[in-house]
Amino acid sequence: MEKLVSDGLSRGSVVPETYIFPGEQRPNTVRTCESIPVVDLQGGSEDEVVREILKAGKEYGFFQVINHGIPEDLVNDMISVAQEFFEMPAENKACYYSEDPRKEPRLFTGQGYGKELSLYWRDCFIISAYPVAKFEHLFPEKPDNLKEIMSKFAPEAKGLAARLLRLISIGLGLEEDYLTGNRSGGPVKMVFNYYPRCPDPSLTLGLPKHCDPNLITLLLQGKVSGLQVLHDDRWVSVDPLPNAFVVNFGLLFEVVTNGLLKAVEHRAVTNHSLARTSIALPIRSADALLSKDNNPPLYGSFLFPEFFKIFATKKTDDKEIMMEDFRIKG
Questions:
Q1: Would you kindly state where each structural domain of the chain is located, as residue ranges?
Q2: For a surface tag, which of 1, 5, 18, 210 has the fewest beta carbons within 10 Å of its beta carbon?
Q3: What phi, psi does 249 have (nearest 5°)?
Q4: Architecture category of domain 16-323 in CATH
Q5: Torsions phi, psi of 267, nearest 5?
Q6: Peptide bond into 22 cis (omega under 30)
Q7: Residues 40-75: pLDDT tens digits?
Q8: Distance between CA 198 and CA 120 in Å, rounded?
Q9: In the prediction, which pLDDT does 26 show?
Q10: 196: CB partners within 8 A, 6+ apart
Q11: Is 326 a residue whose pLDDT tops 60?
């Protein structure tokens, strides 16, 4: 098993050369007086909530949701047990480690998508989690309570995603179930990210600049800041809020809305004194997607596997290049 960042590298006093990014890609100054919008799902009528979601989506492509109905204890337990997983002895995790992206569940380190040659200061564990009955046999036996917590958390998170997609469909003037059902009805994966403390956060990144390929992503941040969003060509730090989920639109959502709601580039930075754990739930598409706007369509129809194959092989962080194969020419 290749050495995980969490299994020794983070205890050193220097960042290994293979994790050091070129100067132009390293973290720089961020806006500390600005934050992404916060949407209170119980903060008004349904129409008011819909307007807030669309406003946030158009301006930032990101927002945080509060008062979402998922119990705070369950949210905290999910983050805690995910961190406990990464902090187990190496021998307890070795059976999950693989360089094969088709393996599931899969633990890996330092790699991802993009053109960077530098390794990322991140360990990652990916597992299908919903429907629970279909995938619970894959859930790790250790930590002892991970299975139980995942079995409770996954349906709650899937329900929140469906609720948000319903509200967005209403806001776009579509049928309420337009973005649910077959369009987001595939299995839901959970992505556990672990960014150990870093000797020098100015030299490396947990994840470089990128856009997500899916419809939307729900992200549970934990209590340590690290997510940054590109807004007006400057990086904005997304500071965690208690019991909040970060929501962002992926490249497929940009296709669905014909560019009205855009996928926005973001990254993860490291921390000198604290480890950071986050849990992402990418909501994908199961069938072909076409814009229903009155505007001339910008993209043709395609299947998600076709899209993801190109996404995984493009080796670029340039969104325009990433999407060129799907745009309607002429």
A1: 16-323
A2: 18
A3: -85, 140
A4: Sandwich (2.60)
A5: -155, 170
A6: no
A7: 999 999 999 999 999 999 999 999 999 999 999 999
A8: 11
A9: 86
A10: 5, 6, 9, 10, 121, 123, 270, 275
A11: no
Widest CA span in the chain: 57
3-state secondary structure of 323: helix
Q: Where are the beta strands (DSSP E) in the chain?
A: 38-40, 62-66, 106-109, 123-130, 188-195, 207-210, 216-220, 227-231, 234-237, 245-249, 266-268, 276-283
Residue that is written with structure tokens 């220097």 in the block:
14
Identity of residue 136: E
Which stretches within 203-276 are classed as H helix? 251-256
- Which structure tokens are listed for 169? 């469909």
Token pair belonging to 43: 């903060």
Distance CA 111, CA 114 (A): 9
Q: Each residue of 99-112: pLDDT tens digit?
A: 888 899 999 998 64
